[in-house]
Specification:
CATH architecture: Roll
Number of strands: 7
Order of helices and strands: EHHEEEEHEEH
Oligomer: single chain
Number of domains: 1
Helix content: 40-55%
Strand order of the largest sheet: 1-2-3-4
Shape: elongated
CATH class: Mainly Beta
């Protein structure tokens, strides 16, 4: 992403690997169950191979999902990019952000990750959410800093 003249990044990041820990653990359970069933039907070697194969697929999918998501807050805008091959980008001006909310379920609090949800003045597809962010409070502080800088740089009437 190219920055505009005078634009400075105050936060840039990706979802934390800890946010995908439940996916990895669920994949491990699934791989173990499928591997055990196949081992009972066929042989233990085939069951282990299939179980390991399933878990490798889960690891790769989680890694690609994390790698393909980027979040950025600058002193001028919010930006989200998703995807490696096919890309989806969202952005809005920082002055259009009206509320910043964070949410952490119990497991997310334990893993120190959370979701930051931005309410914007846009009327269209304005669902801005940074999901799986490590230390969501730092994103809230970054947005506050960006909004203060934007307000201070506006000419006064």
């Amino acid at each position: 992403m190219e920055l505009h003249p005078g634009e400075q990044v105050v936060f840039a990041g990706r979802p934390s690997w800890r946010a995908l820990l439940s996916v990895y653990l669920g994949g491990l359970v699934l791989a173990g169950l499928v591997g055990a069933i196949v081992a009972l039907i066929a042989t233990v070697a085939v069951g282990v191979a299939i179980g390991v194969g399933i878990y490798v697929v889960v690891l790769v999918v989680g890694f690609v999902k994390r790698l393909g998501t980027r979040y950025m807050v600058s002193n001028q805008r919010l930006y989200i990019r998703r995807g490696l091959l096919a890309k989806r980008e969202q952005q809005t001006r920082i002055d259009r952000v009206q509320n910043v909310n964070t949410a952490q379920r119990l497991l997310e609090r334990i893993l120190r990750v959370g979701t930051v949800d931005f309410d914007t003045a846009d009327t269209g597809d304005a669902d801005f959410r940074f999901v799986g962010i490590a230390n969501p409070g730092s994103v809230v502080r970054a947005v506050d800093t960006a909004q203060r800088e934007a307000a201070a740089s506006e000419p006064q009437p």
